Amino acid sequence: MINPKKIEEMAKQLSESLPSGLKQFAGEFEERSKQVLQNQLLKLDMVSREEFDVQQHVLLKTREKLEALQAQVNELEKKLNATG
Q1: Residue-wise burial string across 5-14, b where 16 or more C-beta atoms lie within 10 A, e elsewhere
Q2: In this entry, which stretches build a coiled coil (predicted)?
Q3: DSSP class of residue 17?
Q4: Are 34 and 51 in the same domain?
Q5: What sign does the dihedral 21-23-24-30 (CA atoms) show?
Q6: Model confidence over 32-70: pLDDT tens digits?
Q7: What would you report as the CA-atom Rg of the chain, rounded to the nearest whole angstrom?
Q8: 9 and 41 fall within a common domain
Protein backbone atom coordinates (compact mmCIF):
# COMPACT_ATOMS: atom_id res chain seq x y z
CA MET A 1 0.00 0.00 0.00
CA ILE A 2 2.70 2.49 0.97
CA ASN A 3 5.70 2.61 -1.33
CA PRO A 4 8.80 2.07 0.87
CA LYS A 5 11.07 3.58 -1.81
CA LYS A 6 9.12 6.84 -1.67
CA ILE A 7 9.45 6.97 2.11
CA GLU A 8 13.19 6.36 1.84
CA GLU A 9 13.47 9.18 -0.72
CA MET A 10 11.57 11.55 1.58
CA ALA A 11 13.75 10.61 4.56
CA LYS A 12 16.90 11.11 2.49
CA GLN A 13 15.70 14.53 1.32
CA LEU A 14 15.04 15.50 4.92
CA SER A 15 18.51 14.42 6.04
CA GLU A 16 20.17 16.18 3.08
CA SER A 17 18.44 19.41 4.04
CA LEU A 18 20.06 19.41 7.48
CA PRO A 19 22.52 22.22 8.20
CA SER A 20 26.18 21.25 7.64
CA GLY A 21 26.89 21.12 11.41
CA LEU A 22 24.34 18.37 11.80
CA LYS A 23 25.47 16.24 8.86
CA GLN A 24 27.19 13.78 11.24
CA PHE A 25 23.72 12.82 12.50
CA ALA A 26 22.25 12.51 8.99
CA GLY A 27 22.22 8.70 8.93
CA GLU A 28 20.44 8.40 12.24
CA PHE A 29 18.10 11.25 11.33
CA GLU A 30 17.27 9.62 7.99
CA GLU A 31 16.46 6.29 9.65
CA ARG A 32 14.33 7.87 12.37
CA SER A 33 12.51 10.15 9.96
CA LYS A 34 11.78 7.12 7.77
CA GLN A 35 10.28 5.33 10.78
CA VAL A 36 8.23 8.37 11.76
CA LEU A 37 6.95 8.82 8.21
CA GLN A 38 5.99 5.15 7.95
CA ASN A 39 4.17 5.22 11.29
CA GLN A 40 2.29 8.39 10.48
CA LEU A 41 1.31 7.21 7.00
CA LEU A 42 0.05 3.92 8.42
CA LYS A 43 -2.29 5.87 10.71
CA LEU A 44 -3.95 7.50 7.71
CA ASP A 45 -7.11 5.91 6.36
CA MET A 46 -5.84 5.25 2.86
CA VAL A 47 -6.38 2.64 0.19
CA SER A 48 -3.99 1.44 -2.46
CA ARG A 49 -4.22 2.85 -5.96
CA GLU A 50 -5.26 -0.59 -7.19
CA GLU A 51 -8.13 -0.77 -4.70
CA PHE A 52 -9.16 2.79 -5.58
CA ASP A 53 -9.24 1.92 -9.29
CA VAL A 54 -11.30 -1.21 -8.62
CA GLN A 55 -13.82 0.74 -6.54
CA GLN A 56 -13.99 3.46 -9.18
CA HIS A 57 -14.81 0.80 -11.79
CA VAL A 58 -17.50 -0.70 -9.51
CA LEU A 59 -18.99 2.76 -9.01
CA LEU A 60 -19.06 3.40 -12.76
CA LYS A 61 -20.85 0.09 -13.40
CA THR A 62 -23.32 0.81 -10.59
CA ARG A 63 -24.01 4.26 -12.02
CA GLU A 64 -24.62 2.76 -15.47
CA LYS A 65 -27.08 0.23 -14.01
CA LEU A 66 -28.84 2.96 -12.05
CA GLU A 67 -29.23 5.10 -15.16
CA ALA A 68 -30.61 2.11 -17.09
CA LEU A 69 -33.10 1.39 -14.31
CA GLN A 70 -34.13 5.05 -14.19
CA ALA A 71 -34.76 4.95 -17.94
CA GLN A 72 -36.92 1.84 -17.48
CA VAL A 73 -38.90 3.51 -14.70
CA ASN A 74 -39.42 6.59 -16.87
CA GLU A 75 -40.61 4.41 -19.76
CA LEU A 76 -43.00 2.47 -17.52
CA GLU A 77 -44.39 5.74 -16.11
CA LYS A 78 -45.02 7.01 -19.64
CA LYS A 79 -46.89 3.82 -20.52
CA LEU A 80 -48.87 3.94 -17.30
CA ASN A 81 -49.83 7.58 -17.87
CA ALA A 82 -50.74 6.89 -21.49
CA THR A 83 -53.15 4.09 -20.59
CA GLY A 84 -54.60 5.83 -17.56
Answers
A1: eebeeebeeb
A2: none
A3: T
A4: no
A5: positive
A6: 888 888 888 888 877 888 999 999 999 999 999 999 999
A7: 27
A8: yes
The structure's pTM equals 0.49
Q: Same domain for 41 and 2?
A: yes
* Average pLDDT of every residue of the chain: 85
6: domain range?
1-46
Helix or strand or coil: residue 22? Answer: helix
The three-point CA angle 72-76-80 to 5° equals 170
| Angstrom distance (rounded) from CA 60 to CA 58 | 5
40 shares a domain with 27:
yes
Which of these, 52, 14, 11, lies nearest to 35 by C-alpha position? 11
